[in-house]
Design goal:
Helix content is 38%, strand content 22%. It folds into four domains: 3-64 and 190-229, Orthogonal Bundle (Arc Repressor Mutant, subunit A), CATH 1.10.10; 72-184, Arc Repressor Mutant, subunit A (Orthogonal Bundle), CATH 1.10.10.10; 245-273 and 368-509, BirA Bifunctional Protein, domain 2 (2-Layer Sandwich); 276-350, no CATH class. The longest helix is centred in the middle third of the chain and has 15 residues, at 251-265. It has a seven-stranded mixed β-sheet with strand order 10-13-14-18-17-16-15, with helices on both faces. A four-stranded antiparallel β-sheet has the order 1-7-2-6. It has a three-stranded antiparallel β-sheet with strand order 3-5-4. With 509 residues, the chain is an alpha+beta fold. The chain has helices spanning 3-8, 12-24, 29-36, 41-53, 80-92, 98-104, 109-122, 140-145, 151-161, 171-179, 198-204, 219-224, 251-265, 279-284, 315-327, 342-346, 355-364, 406-419, 460-463, 479-487, 500-505, and strands spanning 26-27, 57-69, 95-97, 125-130, 133-138, 164-165, 184-196, 213-214, 231-232, 269-270, 276-278, 348-350, 370-379, 391-400, 426-430, 435-445, 448-458, 473-478. Strand 16 and strand 17 form a beta hairpin. It has 21 helices and 18 strands. Bound molecules: phenylalanine. Phenylalanine binds at residues 353, 355, 432, 435, 453-456, 474-476.
């Protein structure tokens, strides 16, 4: 950053403080406040800490002890040892016993004790035992002391004028006064000195262009034209700020939103379906033979209550589908050449793919053209591993319009994955009972080819019974398999572990 850039990122207060320091080099916040003509110490301190963060000033802190009188008249009252010495001289001719002193009632017993202690310490009197009593004899030093002011008294007088810091007082005298109860209080005061660093002094020498600064533009500012004369505060977008974690959508929800928007902008309409399905719609209508391995228990979750679906509304279609399976009906196909069973078709199950949604949609309204999609959960009785989940979401779709062909299907698939952030996919021939040709979409990821989904053109055995005589392009992709390359996940199960750190750091777009 150049010096001029630095200047342009300084706030009004920062510039004021820098300019003031340019004059004095270093000073207390109070001094800076006065020189800069600012109003509040916080303005100086805030600006100074920002300047410190930018390396332009240094803030030194020193802690000192400050002393003040606890009681205003401590300075006016004579010290108790002085009272006692005076009494001994005037009333007892320079020598008195403790009993005598007590009798005068000048001081309370405990004060008298304290006074005697100080008389001994200061050498103002000598103590001796006479019989059972203690006798105090005032010394020469004591006689001189009563007319003069002692160091301690002088300090008390100075303190009566105002606080003093430890550097302004004699350590021993202050120590003595601190020993007395209720005379002084001591507190720690931190004082700050703000000084320019070398860099700061370079900058303070530049033209700081100090102008009144506004943080927010108001209509008044614009209408009056005053905006021309003010500085508009720049934002430091790189300044540290703590990250705030609010409530947010799960990444999968966001990905689904994005897929939905992508299909909608490509002219598709969304359809939905039920988790609860039956074999007739999930398989038979899709020309899946009743002895197809996918119908075995290891792939499909069959339901026990109810065990058989009510297919009475589909009687006409059932009759056609039975013929398609047994002999191809009028489709030109030979069918599967076996005895079709209605009981098998009535079995209830959790849908194994969302192709059941699109086929139901065609049956409900076979009028061309159609371009529909669905995003929904499917269920498969499969072992879980790093690329398999027993419950996952499929992105399903069909297109039937003028000119729809295999090329169009491949382009559509590539386009979709590119929009999702997967630039390179591989399309391979595959097999599904309901499409011809059939293909799989794969991606090279984590060191191997991973299947993202299947697609193809519905066979006439599927479309003819529904009254559709044109090719229908169809596909079904795994949502979580798509999320893996998009988010760089090694294990598909991580998506649903709900690791809070992972959830926090996932982008919200
Ligand atoms: N239903 C297939 C699956 O579950 C995907 C697919 C859909 C294949 C449509 C071809 C056509 O994997």
């Amino acid at each position: 950053m150049t010096d001029n850039d630095l200047v342009s990122q300084l706030s009004y207060f920062e510039k004021k403080v820098l300019a003031a320091l340019g004059d004095i080099g270093s000073g207390s916040p109070q001094q800076i406040l006065e020189i800069a003509g600012l109003e509040m110490l916080v303005e100086v301190m805030n600006a100074s800490s920002w300047l410190q963060a930018k390396g332009l000033v240094k803030i030194d802190e020193t802690t000192t002890k400050r002393y003040s009188l606890k009681n205003e008249d401590a300075a006016g009252r004579p010290l108790p040892e002085k009272v006692v010495v005076k009494t001994i001289i005037s009333d007892f001719d320079g020598k008195a016993s403790l009993a005598d002193l007590k009798r005068t009632g000048e001081l309370k017993t405990d004060e008298l004790q304290i006074a005697i202690g100080w008389i001994r310490k200061k050498g103002w009197g000598e103590l001796s035992k006479e019989g059972r009593d203690t006798v105090v004899r005032v010394t020469k030093k004591g006689r001189e002391a009563i007319d003069a002011k002692g160091e301690d008294e002088l300090l008390l007088l100075r303190l009566a004028e105002g606080d003093l810091s430890e550097t302004e007082v004699n350590k021993d005298t202050i120590g003595q006064l601190m020993q007395r109860k209720d005379f002084l209080s001591e507190r720690l005061v931190t004082s700050r000195t703000i000084s320019l660093t070398d860099k700061g002094s370079d900058i303070s020498g530049l033209d700081l262009r100090i102008k009144e600064e506004v943080g927010q533009i108001s209509p008044e500012l614009i209408q009056s034209g005053k905006w021309r004369g003010v500085d508009i505060r720049r934002y430091d977008v790189k300044a540290f700020a703590p990250t705030v974690y609010g409530g947010r959508k799960h990444p999968i929800t966001l990905l689904i939103d994005k897929i939905r928007t992508t299909f909608l902008t490509m002219g598709f309409t969304e359809i939905t379906g039920d988790f609860f399905e039956n074999a007739f719609w999930n398989m038979d209508v899709l020309f899946t033979a009743q002895d197809h391995p996918a119908r075995e228990l290891h792939d499909t979750f069959y339901l026990s209550n109810p065990e058989a679906a009510d297919l009475s509304n589909d009687a006409d279609l059932i009759d056609v589908v039975r013929q398609v399976h047994e002999n191809g009906w009028k489709t030109g196909s030979l069918g599967w050449q076996y005895k079709w069973s209605l009981d098998e078709a009535r079995k209830t199950l959790l849908r194994t793919h969302t192709t059941v949604n699109t086929i139901r949609r065609i049956a409900a309204d076979p009028k061309l053209p159609f371009k529909v999609f669905s995003i929904g959960r499917v269920f498969r009785n499969e072992a879980m591993d790093s690329t398999h989940l027993p419950e996952f979401v499929q992105i399903e779709g069909i297109v039937c319009e003028e000119g729809a062909n295999f090329d169009m299907l491949c382009t559509l698939l590539k386009e979709f994955y590119k929009k999702m952030g997967v630039p390179k996919i591989r399309i391979r021939p595959s097999y599904y009972p309901y499409t011809e040709p059939s293909l799989d979409v794969e991606i090279f990821f984590n060191g191997q080819w991973m299947e993202l989904g299947g697609a193809g053109i519905f066979r006439p055995e599927v479309t003819e019974p529904l009254g559709v005589h044109k090719p229908v392009l169809a596909w079904g992709f795994g949502l979580e398999r798509l999320a893996m390359p998009v988010w760089g996940l090694k294990d598909i199960r991580d998506i649903y572990v709900s690791d809070i750190d992972w959830l926090k750091k996932m982008p919200q777009v």
